[in-house]
Specification:
Largest sheet: 5 strands, parallel
CATH architecture of the largest domain: 3-Layer(aba) Sandwich
Shape: globular
Radius of gyration: 22 Å
CATH topology of the largest domain: Rossmann fold
Number of domains: 3
Helix content: 40-55%
Distance between the termini: 42 Å
CATH class of the largest domain: Alpha Beta
Strand content: 5-15%
Number of strands: 8
Bound molecules: adenosine-5'-triphosphate, magnesium ion
Strand order of the largest sheet: 2-3-4-1-5
Number of helices: 14
CATH superfamily of the largest domain: P-loop containing nucleotide triphosphate hydrolases
Structural class: alpha/beta
Length: about 350
Amino acid sequence: MFKRREVFTESFLPRELPGRTAQLDDLARLISPTTRGQPARSCWQLGPSGVGKTTTARWILEDLRDNHAITWTRVECVGSTRWNLLGEICGAHPQVPHHPGMGVAEMAQKLAANVTRPYVVILDEFDGLEDEELLFDLAEAEMVSLICIAHDEESALSTVPKSLEGLRGAEIIEFDGYDADALFEILKARVEIGMDSGAISDAQLHHIVQGAGGSARRAVQSLRSAVELAQERGHRKVLEEDVDDCFEHAMARIREQLLASLSREHHIVYQVIRDAGPKGVRSNAILDRYQRRSANPRSRQQVGNYRAKLERYGLVEADGNGRWATYTVVDEALDAPLKRTI
Ligand SMILES: Nc1ncnc2c1ncn2[C@@H]1O[C@H](COP(=O)(O)OP(=O)(O)OP(=O)(O)O)[C@@H](O)[C@H]1O
Ligand SMILES: [Mg+2]
């Protein structure tokens, strides 16, 4: 039933982005100065999980590289130090001399001195950034512009120092959930290039759209799961029962991937909550138990950020409000990838 499996992976970059015309236009306007040799205007891309923030940024920058030879890179802030991130950003630029023995100050200096043409850096998972000094390093490099991707304004701006007014006031491009028409188009395009014809009907695609809650990730992964279930069950094409069961099957895989994408410290917090079982655990106890388990424990505020990120990813849920809220994991079967070492 699958003609091209890679069409259903996270990293696959589609040819078209239904439902994202306004965001693509905004981004194109902000990066257009690069085609005249000037730096792009930095911006924020904000919105919930799975609605095309990373994909849209990659799509437009691939286009810019192909048509205008503009250099860009994408780094993920979650779980990375300032040294790691600067290393990735310097290493991805052909004109910046870089070797692993360099310290942060030297890397920042080389970046500022050697980037003489526009360089666009996507800081993805920005709400996971732990060392704000990186933002000062990047602000020193005149030709470097940022596309900062996060889930909401509050979690994103809380890491940006007040003195970085330019970045704090940068334009915000909002990404909201997709409507049913856009999700249907997204699925239809994947079916056409990735599946044998006749393997799934339009009515079944509509059914999948209804279960996706506005998320393209959920829609695409549910489609993939429907086909996988059909294959496992020996069906020659996707049947209703495969569609009925595809949502939970896809969500389990999505949760596993999201958890794997987070840092070791997130994993410890997750594991503390999971170990508390169905009765849940309060935030003070999470902090306490986390501090006992971590070899390099982070601050109370940072642990609160980790817990909030787990919630935004739908891995953990809260019952109640404020300090009296109790936290439980959404999927008790899902283990943190580092369990054995903590
Ligand atoms: N407009 C679109 N057209 C086609 N596919 C899309 C579109 N938007 C998103 N997708 C697909 O949905 C999946 C999730 O998209 P993406 O990773 O860009 O979401 P995100 O907003 O960055 O989520 P997160 O906040 O969890 O990182 C990817 O597989 C991507 O290819
Ligand atoms: Mg993303």
